[in-house]
Amino acid sequence: MFAILGLGFLLGMQHALEVDHIAAVSTIAARRSGIRDIVKHGLTWGLGHTLTLFLFAGAAIVLGHAIPDHIAEPLEGAVGIMLVGLGAHLLWRLWRDRVHVHVHQHGDGTRHVHLHSHAGQVARHDAPAAHRHEHGFRWRTLIVGLMHGMAGSAALLVLAVSQAPTPTQGLLYVALFGLGSMVGMGALSAAIAVPLVISARGLTVVNRGLQIAVGVLTIVIGLHTIQATLLG
After folding, report:
1. Are 30 and 211 contacting, i.e. CB atoms less than 8 angstroms apart?
2. 149-206 pLDDT, tens per residue?
3. What single-letter DSSP state applies at residue 116?
4. In the chain, where does DSSP find H-type helix?
5. What is the DSSP letter of 18?
6. Which of 33, 122, 152, 215 has its CA 20 to 30 A from that of 79?
């Protein structure tokens, strides 16, 4: 039993590294400028992913069968559409904002690196800047994770149903799988954050290039997913 549960945790970590998951979280991370914030978004994605997996897999374990292919494939296609939207939105923001980078410091000594635009403004760059920081719950990232959980649950359900001797153990397996995906995505988000934050501190062109690459690759992955699931 413990071997199966441990396998569920490790498979969850590996599951977080699937290319469509990396693309989605990279697109979200590209709009952020702090490692802590990016990691929080990664963990929030993992939470949404876990909640949906637990719901779908739990229902399948209790009912005794997995999601049929004619339902699972459209869900995968919906994820592809979402990826195209995320990538396109990132590219649109870059074009709209004509982004450049600067650092500012708050009264408490906290320093922040910002991708920011002063298009249409006449302002001194050495003057204190007012910025709105995101302190609330990251609902948009949670929704992206929920979508991925719906699409990625079919294969997990088959494994969970076939390996679990009892519904309780099956649900525990799913919970550990989800926890593993959260840990994996948190670690991946930290890795993604490093080049973004470093480039934002003085390499404006490099930072914008990274964001453009993330946006384009996310669109390509989304289109491939749509072609494979809805048009194939």
Report:
1. yes
2. 777 555 555 556 556 677 778 778 888 888 888 888 888 888 887 777 777 666 667 7
3. E
4. 2-15, 19-29, 35-63, 69-97, 139-151, 153-163, 167-200, 204-226
5. S
6. 33
124 in a structural domain:
no
Cα separations in angstroms, 86 against 73, 173, 198, 203: 20, 31, 23, 24
Question: Amino acid identity, residue 100?
Answer: H
Other CB atoms within 10 Å distance of the CB of residue 58: 17
109 occurs within a structural domain = no
Backbone angles phi, psi at 110, to 5 degrees: -70, 130
Number of domains the chain is built from: 1
In a domain, 110, yes or no: no
Amino acid residing at 163: Q
Q: Per the domain annotation, does 107 fall within a domain?
A: no
- DSSP string for 156-220: HHHHHHHH-SSHHHHHHHHHHHHHHHHHHHHHHHHHHHHHHHHHHTT-HHHHHHHHHHHHHHHHH
Structure tokens at 172: 């525990």
Average pLDDT along the chain: 75
The structure tokens listed for 73 are 């494939």
Instruction: Report the C-alpha gap between 203 and 102 in whole angstroms.
Output: 10
* Percent of the chain predicted with pLDDT > 90: 4
Residue 47 CA to residue 156 CA, distance in Å, equals: 16
